[in-house]
Specification:
GART, Rossmann fold, alpha/beta, 6 helices, 7 strands, transferase, seven-stranded mixed beta sheet
């Protein structure tokens, strides 16, 4: 059984899509939704969905005690980032090796890195007149938007796309594919159990 913590910093639409999908997977449970933003909309979503929530300060993440709290108090075996804007510290990478997943609203590595999130990605795609955009689902390493790619889904950029229309279509891809990829990855028979 895999027990996940969903980390989010904003509204939480991806977190909600994950909860809805993963509650139907026998071998996965959602332990909590965690955020570094005490005003994040994801907190209201967590309450409405009946999922425990945890608000923390970003500096706490680097403390080994934070990873221990996730593992011991909440029995977390994997972390799924869903619009979480912070860099994951080494202490969490060590505590959850190859068990921290992220989704990015663009194709990596070209449209990623520090400061490249949300509408900033779509603005750049449109500024560069790209014909294709998409999402990238990947494992986390110690850098922004790096790590092994698990899935990439592309879509055509329309000539009349705006940041808003492109963002809306990217969100639909995220809500459709991220939960499926998370479930598939965490239920793989060759995934090393968390010690």
């Amino acid at each position: 059984m895999e027990t996940i913590a969903i980390f989010a910093s904003g509204n939480g639409t991806n977190a909600e899509a994950l909860v809805h999908y993963l509650t139907n997977i026998d071998d996965i449970s959602v332990a909590l939704i965690a955020t570094d933003n005490p005003h994040a909309g994801v907190l209201q979503r967590a309450e409405r969905l009946g999922v425990r929530s945890l608000v923390f300060q970003r500096k706490e993440m680097a403390n080994v005690a934070f990873a221990e709290q996730l593992r011991e108090q909440y029995q977390v075996t994997a972390i799924v980032l869903a619009g979480f804007l912070g860099l994951v510290p080494e202490s969490l990478l060590r505590a959850f090796p190859r068990r921290i997943l992220n989704i990015h609203p663009g194709l990596l590595p070209d449209y990623g890195g520090k400061g490249m999130y949300g509408d900033r990605v779509h603005e750049r795609v449109l500024e560069e007149h790209c014909k294709v955009s998409g999402i990238t689902i990947h494992l986390i390493d110690g850098e922004y938007d790096r790590g092994s790619t698990l899935c990439e889904v592309r879509l055509a950029v329309h000539p009349d796309d705006t940041v808003d229309t492109l963002a809306e279509r990217i969100h639909r891809l995220e809500h459709t594919y991220y939960p499926i990829v998370v479930a598939d990855y965490l239920t793989r028979p060759d995934l090393t159990p968390l010690a």
